[in-house]
Amino acid sequence: MAKDTSFRKKVTLNASGKLIDLSKPKVMGIINLTPDSFYEESRKQGIGDALQQAQKMLNDGADFLDIGAYSTRPGADDISIQEETDRLMPVVEALISHFPDAVLSIDTFRSKIAETAVKAGAHIINDISGGQLDEDMFATVARLQVPYILMHTKGTPKTMNQLAQYEDVFAEVFDYFAAKYHQLKLLGIHDVIIDPGFGFAKKPEHGYALMDRLQDFDMLGLPILVGISRKKMIYNQLGVTAEEALNGTTALNTIALTKGANILRVHDVKEAVEAVKIWEMCR
Predict the structure, then answer these.
(1) pLDDT single digits (tens) 128-183
(2) Domain map of the chain by residue range?
(3) Which of 202, 231, 232, 270 does the annotation list as catalytic?
(4) How many Cα atoms occupy the beta-carbon half-sphere of 210 within 13 Å?
(5) CB 224 within 8 A of CB 192
(6) Does the annotation mark 265 as catalytic?
């Protein structure tokens, strides 16, 4: 059977003049500047801890560092823009100073914080809300002309667990991406990465249904980010804790690679880089 070539998946990003080729999967290391992220080992308090973690991740082969200062775990409390800024910006500035060649992604749904971080030297905006929690986010990204990670969720971190209801989770998430990407294109935003939002307003069975059809998101022609690192869909299934979920994470990340994932967002960079290397040997 001839391969369907009716669509072409975009495999390059322009991150502040850095041309990034996603035809080879990339690894994004998570640095949480929060006191209550779901995986305790990922919490880094202060500049020193964050720099140490960044150095380790870069040494282990991370292509991106994703910096977040607002906990988006289910049920997390809201914090002010000022508190998020105070947690985030000293670390962003230190990372830019110490690792000038590192590509920094900023995990925020607030346009003011996105703009402040990009003007300081960050490269990518990772918005868990897909512009739903800040009506100025899309226009801000268009003005900044940086790559944008568009994630699917419903509600807020406080309410999303109550909204995990779908008749057809894949169809709903696909239609969401198609509509949002249309809005982004009209604003002149072309470097868009989609993230199905595993664990965000989704039960474990929804996550596995999305993983089963991950390759079908290629019909949108956009790079795919998968963020399943140590999440409930893994540790509940295995009867372990987040701290014990590395092996399950590596297994599911490898499955995601076989289904077309372009970026793995992870707590454990070394293991994800190794998964990419082994997967590439089997292509």
Answers:
(1) 999 999 999 999 999 999 999 999 999 888 888 888 899 999 999 999 999 999 99
(2) 25-281
(3) 231
(4) 30
(5) no
(6) yes
What is the CATH topology of the domain spanning 25-281?
TIM Barrel (3.20.20)
Query: Nearest to residue 231, comparing CAs of 99, 33, 84, 74?
Result: 74
Is this model's pTM higher than 0.90 or not? Answer: yes
Angle between helices 111-120 and 137-144 (to 10 degrees): 20
Give the residue carrying structure tokens 């893994």: 234
Is position 231 annotated as part of the catalytic site?
yes
The CA R_g of the chain, rounded to the nearest whole Å, is 17
Residue 11 CB neighbours (<10 A): 14
Which position among 265, 270, 277, 283 bears the catalytic label?
A: 265
Alpha-carbon dihedral angle through residues 252, 254, 260, 261, given to the nearest 10 degrees: 70
CB-CB contact of 103 with 63 (8 Å)? yes
- Helices 169-186, 204-212: crossing angle, 10 deg rounding: 70
Retrieve residue 27's tokens.
């690894």
